[in-house]
Amino acid sequence: MMLNHDLKKEFQVERIAFFSDAVFAIAITLLIIEIKVPEVHGERFSSAEIVQGLFALIPKFIGFIVSFFVIALYWVNHHQIFKYVVHYSPKLVWTNLFLLFSIVMMPFSSAFYSDYWLSYSAVPLGFYVVNICLTGFMNTRLWYVVSNPANKLSEGLTNRAFVSYCKARSMIAPFVFLLSFLVSTFSMRIAYWCPGLIFVFMMFLKRYYRKKHPELFIK
Asked: Which residues cross the membrane (predicted)?
């Protein structure tokens, strides 16, 4: 009887993880669907016109690349969290659903931001920043729910430094996008390139934790 109960719990946890993987996969696929093949009108057109059409898509491609790696970052985080989950609860399910809600919003907010980045309006960037911040907050919240011993949802999450590192890493993207929003108040063009700082901050965060907690990075 106990074995059947444990198997049922394991099955339910796997269902949550598989459903989440599907949502991440769909969201990351929808990003590229937003980019259409450039239209060149007329029966005869030159290579220069095609290249010009491709250049017009550069903002969309940049938005796609940034959002792809942001979603990928949170998928890796999500995968890392569920390695330790052995039980489930309504709190876990709903926290996970709110995270997935913010993920499926990403293709729209990314397209909105990419289409209007040269409009010098703070609204598209602000919408995208809110989406990223919600994602980061819900990912951090998921870490808190899973790692809290009182919730009895995980096994093996005894290293608090590791949990702290994962929480900090999940907040890097929101921090960088908030920074880009502040930069946009005096230069939209500079703000557009700020997301590249995500990888810089991740590198420094890893270096900091490697120095203070080298045991976290021993394979």
From this structure: 16-33, 53-76, 125-146, 166-184
Other residues' Cβ atoms within 10 Å of the Cβ of residue 86:
15
* Tens digit of each residue's pLDDT (9 = 90 or more) over 89-136: 889 999 999 999 999 999 999 989 888 876 667 788 889 999 999 999
pTM for this structure? Answer: 0.84
Is a pLDDT exceeding 50 seen at residue 76? yes
pLDDT tens for each residue of 30-66: 998 888 877 766 666 677 777 787 888 888 888 889 8
Spatial CB neighbours of 66, under 8 Å, sequence gap ≥ 6: 110, 195
- What is the per-residue pLDDT for 205? 92
Find the Cα–Cα–Cα–Cα dihedral 100, 106, 109, 110, rounded to 10°.
170
Q: What is the SS3 assignment for the chain?
A: CHHHHHHHHHHHHHHHHHHHHHHHHHHHHHHHHCCCCCCCCCCCCCHHHHHHHHHCCHHHHHHHHHHHHHHHHHHHHHHHHHCCECCCCHHHHHHHHHHHHHHHCHHHHHHHHHHCHHHCCHHHHHHHHHHHHHHHHHHHHHHHHHHCHHHCCECCCCCHHHHHHHHHHHCHHHHHHHHHHHHCCCCHHHHHHHHHHHHHHHHHHHHHHHHHCHHHHCC
Would you list the domain boundaries of the chain?
2-217
